[in-house]
Specification:
Layout: E1 25-26, E2 31-33, H1 42-52, H2 60-65, E3 70-71, E4 76-78, H3 84-93, H4 98-103, H5 106-121, E5 125-131, E6 150-158, E7 176-183, H6 196-203, E8 206-210, E9 213-217, E10 221-226, E11 230-237, E12 239-240
Antiparallel strand pairs: 1-2, 2-12, 3-8, 4-5, 5-6, 6-7, 8-9, 9-10, 10-11
Helix pairs in contact: 3-5
Length: 245
Amino acid sequence: MKTFKATSKGCFALAAAALLGHSASGNAEGWISKTQPDAPGAELCSELLKRLNTLSEKCAADAIESYPGFREPPWETLNAGEHLDLIARLLLSVGKGPAAAWQASAEQLAYKRRGAQDFAARGGLLRVWRSHVFSDLGDSHERPASPGPQVLVQLIWGSGESGRLKDCPGHSTDGWVRQTFLVKPDMSGPDPDLGVGKAYALLTHQPMLFRSQVVFIGTQDVFQDVPGLGLTGGFSAFQHAAAKH
C-alpha cells in the first residue's frame, strides 16, 4: 500500500488514512486527503478535493487540470521542423534523465532525429516558455539555480480524439500526450544540471499558473517548488478510497 507522509511543510494526502488511524478529509466512498491547515497550498488542496468528489474517478486528471483557479502559462508555439536536434535530444532523455541526452552516440542521436522528424510530420507541437521555475536544480537541494528565466519546452502529440471521455471537463482524456522538459538557454537540448528525479517529475506533470505562482499538475497530484524545501514544500496528492492496493 502506497502512502504519502504528512509533514508540517507540505499538504499531503494519505490513501485509506482511516485504516491507519489518521483523520482524513473527504468522502469515504470517494477521494480522500489528509491536509495540514497551516501547510503551503492547504487551501488549494481542500478546493481540489471538493472538485474531485464532484466527478467520477475516471475524470481525476481532468478535474485537477480544469480547476478554475489554474491557467496555462503563456506558451510560444515553435516550428517543430526547425528544431529537430532539440527534439531528438529530448526524446533521448526520456526515462534516462537529461545527462543521457549528451552521452548518446552519433548513431543514437541519428535514430532519435528520425523520431523527431516523424513527430513533426505527424503534427506534433513544440512549445516554449521562459520563467524562473526551479529554485534548485538538484534532487537534494545541492544545485541552487542561477537567477533569471529558465527555459521550459513542451512536446505535445496524439490524435486529439481517440481517448476522449465524454463527461470529463479537461483535456487529459482527449488523446493528447504532453511532456515538459527544462532545456539549456540556447535550446540545444535538456539541461544536464537538472536532477533525474526533478526531470521525471517535470516530464509527468504540466506546469500551470495559480495566483501568479507556478504549480505542476499530475493525474492525481499537484506540487510546487518552494525555496528551501524543493518540490516537497507544497504537495497535494489524492487517492480514491476504493482504490485497490
